[in-house]
Design goal:
single chain; alpha+beta; Pnp Oxidase, Chain A; 7 strands; about 25% helix; about 40% strand
Length: about 110
């Protein structure tokens, strides 16, 4: 179906424990695009809530693991990036249609080297 996965590691906002979640993603000029759909649930996925508390994450794509910073996108940027995943994986549009919750779209940007 054209799905490409990454592993996203966030820090638990309450536990402080690292949690890893496999997610579909797309690449863009902005970074790696992910959708917090939670399969159309009326609640946000826990990994998204963890990012709201601490946007510093670790990403693994194939054998490469790197630090990144997550940011939510809105408006025109969201409208431009959403189809990168939803056109390949139309269930994201179905999930959005099935909930009153606005499903967040995030970009994972590689952290700058120190």
């Amino acid at each position: 179906m054209g799905a490409t996965n990454l592993l996203l590691t966030t820090t638990g906002r309450m536990s402080g424990t690292e949690r890893t979640t496999p997610l579909n993603y797309a690449e863009s000029d902005a970074g790696y695009v992910i959708i917090a759909s939670y399969e159309g649930s009326d609640t946000h996925p826990k990994w998204y809530l963890n990012i709201q508390a601490d946007p510093h994450v670790t990403v693994q794509i194939l054998g490469e693991r790197f630090p990144a910073v997550a940011r939510e996108v809105f408006g025109d940027e969201k409208a431009r990036l959403w189809p990168l995943l939803a056109d390949r994986l139309p269930y994201f549009n179905e999930y959005q249609a099935s909930t009153e919750r606005t499903i967040p779209l995030l970009v994972l940007e590689r952290a700058k080297e120190k």
